[in-house]
Amino acid sequence: MDAPAPTSPPTPVFRRVLLKLSGESFCKPGEGGLSEEEISRIARQTAQVARLGVSLAIVVGGGNILRGATLRGSKVIRETTAHYMGMTATMINGLALQDALEGQSIPTRLMTTIRMDECAEPFIRRRALSHLENGRVVILVTGTGSPYVTTDTAAALRGKELEVEVILKATKVDGVYSAPPEKNPHAIRYDHLTFEQVMQDQLKIMDMTAIGMCLENKLPILVFDFKKEGNMMRAILGEPIGTWVGSHPRPTARTAHATGS
Question: 16-259: what fold?
């Protein structure tokens, strides 16, 4: 009996992407801190994508440890200081993710906008591009390095700098809704939105500064449920999951094949 022919690996529709992970991705729902189970889930999904040859940059938040805005109004800690505290919280998440990915035999580089030479490389655009071109996953921490700027805005900025094709916005719901689905059972889930619709309806995808940057730079966003195992791979392969935000249609396996990409 003849042996079955080897199957070809699936073909991604994107060559380079940026994954935006909130701090809450690193902990169990309703909790804070770090969950090894959740960190392992992130590493498994991102490793699958990296093994396809997709260049992957990851911007991580720090809300599971500390969100600077939560200390607004404190009589002890200045708000600017609180934002710097929040930025350093992202370093903790980045270090955890780096170890988890390397445990999956995925080469990584951790890059920071606040100098911590014992922990990570300083973010330098050309160096980050070199890492991506050499097959390393680049984990980006400490946001933009400036207070009063969210990691969403950092993701939009780095997405443009690193020439990615899409920002993958990881969430705990399966897309963008007209209203919070946990509060309104009649909320409508969108398959495709323009940036103008997002701003007009004030839909909570990313902060408006980040949305404006993506609009200006024609950088689409795919909002999807990252908690469901395998969804990141489905997104990379062009399956119709989540909500596509952008001025042009989302690429699919069929359109990618037709255009030869």
Answer: Carbamate kinase (3.40.1160)
